[in-house]
Amino acid sequence: MNVRHFLLATVASFLFSQAQTLAQVLDLPTRLAQIRPATANAHVATYNGRNVQLKTTINSSDGKMDYFTITYPSAEIKRWPVLVMVAPYIVIPQDAAWVAELRQAPPLRSIPSLRIDSSFPREARAIECLGRGGDCYINLQGPANYSNLAAEGDVFEGPNVVDAALASGCAVVVSYVRFYQGRSFAANVHTVANAIEALTLDPQIDQDRIALLGRSWGGTMALLAVTISNRPLPIRAVVAEAAAIDGPWIIGYYLNELKVKQPTDLYLLSLEFSKPYYNRLHRSLGPLDSADWNYFTINSIAARWPRQTALLLICSSNDLMVPCQQSVDLDNALGNRSDLLKFEFGLPQFATESALQGSHGTLPASRGNQILSWLADHLR
């Protein structure tokens, strides 16, 4: 091969790699179109007399196995509506070996759920962390228990969402996004989209009545899975609670706004909490000034939002972790195509709480009934 041919081959290889990256991040469907998930049913547990089946897909972003469970309301063979719950922070049994290696984060022992994110490669980070060896802290909700699906539903308080959905004749899917293990932003989006696509191949699922529900990062993944370009997913309704909706804005909030509003010690804790998210976004979207970040903005999500998909946004005015303004702005951008449930409880406690301590503010248990009522109206 002469020098000219070598240079042309090198340039072509580079352009192909860039095209793959953009397909994974912006369009995401290129290689996913070749995947017809999921595996055959595998009974893993029984929940309130119902079989819990575990299914897997292959994530085209990082090649790892993804998992979701599906539970039908009864053994009757029919086409059921389905509620898909996005669970980003629950450690699944298949990752027990990794979990055994987790170590408590010493500087933040007052928050027992924090662990070291020991598997995120340093070369992929946008920002260094304060943990052991420069690792980041992540907040986990504990191990999954396939025989206790109600634990996943309890995150929304009030009446258990899982039990209520099953009792109303709705199948329940739990998509385990696995925010840990150093997985990227694109991999997390793929996980949810693959689970939805798998359901479209299930003869016991009514493809016209699929709902998606997520809280915090789970809500973010729900919104982005719905708006993947060139890969329409048949989702009737979405509930996104306390979701980060605009990547550049939320990163600026943690890097700059909280620096002004919080005492130094609390600001550093808030900043540390944000780093795993920033690093995962950076791994998929590149530097903060990259055009790829436009994929994860309020205007972009609003522009791509399917007209046939109803959306309920939920937030609290005293949310310190993800300001309620994110949901308000998306609701405004969508006009009359979304519903907003905003709870007024004053301002976040910037002077006395870190982002993790303040969390998503005050969200009354009564909203569980409101969520279930809204879903019932849109899955008729």
Give the topology, please:
Blueprint: H1 3-27, E1 42-47, E2 50-58, E3 65-71, E4 80-87, H2 96-100, E5 114-117, E6 136-139, H3 150-153, H4 161-167, E7 171-176, H5 185-199, E8 205-215, H6 217-226, E9 237-241, H7 247-261, H8 264-285, H9 298-304, E10 310-316, H10 325-334, E11 339-343, H11 355-358, H12 367-378
Parallel strand pairs: 4-7, 4-8, 8-9, 9-10, 10-11
Antiparallel strand pairs: 1-2, 2-3, 3-7, 5-6
What would a concise description of this structure say?
The chain has 380 residues and is an alpha/beta fold. 36% of the residues lie in helices and 19% in strands. The chain has twelve helices and eleven strands.
Describe this structure as you would to a colleague.
By secondary structure, this protein is an alpha/beta fold. The chain has a single domain (3-378), classed as Alpha/Beta hydrolase fold, catalytic domain (Rossmann fold, 3-Layer(aba) Sandwich). Helices cover 36% and strands 19% of the residues. The protein has twelve helices and eleven strands. It has helices spanning 3-27, 96-100, 150-153, 161-167, 185-199, 217-226, 247-261, 264-285, 298-304, 325-334, 355-358, 367-378, and strands spanning 42-47, 50-58, 65-71, 80-87, 114-117, 136-139, 171-176, 205-215, 237-241, 310-316, 339-343. It has a nine-stranded mixed sheet, sandwiched between helices. Strand 8, helix 6 and strand 9 form a beta-alpha-beta unit. Helix 5 (185-199) packs across helix 6 and helix 9 runs parallel beside helix 10. The longest helix is centred in the first third of the chain and has 25 residues, at 3-27. The chain is globular. The N and C termini lie far apart (64 Å). The model is unreliable at 1-37 (pLDDT under 50).
